[in-house]
Amino acid sequence: MFDTDSADTYYRASWARARALAVNGATKLLTFLRENGIASVRVEEAAGLSRQNMTKLKWGRTDPRLSTMRRVLGGIRQVTHRPVRMEEIFDLEPRSGT
Asked: Where are the domains positioned within the chain?
């Protein structure tokens, strides 16, 4: 039998961690989506990306290829109907110490 109290506690803790990460380590992509009220599923569909890939991009768990960055940019432009620049959604500066 599934213990709903344990599940509720687990998910509350997970969301609390996610909110803390969003404040401290938000990527430009995640910040852009939140500030503009865009659901990532709309960009995923427009760009032809999987939910898993988009999640990795939003949370900075992967370094995207240029082709993926272009797909995301195209998807965001399609959703927002405005000329968004690559610099608005991705950090293009090299990381220090690498």
From this structure: 13-84
Cα 48 to Cα 6: distance, rounded to the nearest angstrom: 36
Helix (H), strand (E), coil (C) string for the chain: CCCHHHHHHHHHHHHHHHHHHHHHHCCHHHHHHHHCCCCHHHHHHHHCCCHHHHHHHHCCCCCCCHHHHHHHHHHHHHHHCCCCCHHHHCCCCCCCCC
**Spatial CA neighbour of 49 closest among 26, 80, 33, 70:** 70
Nearest to 91 by CA among 57, 50, 41: 57
Q: Tens of pLDDT along 43-86?
A: 999 999 999 999 999 999 988 999 999 999 999 999 999 999 99
Predicted TM-score (pTM) of the model is 0.71
Whether residue 60 contacts residue 25, with contact meaning beta carbons closer than 8 Å, is answered with yes
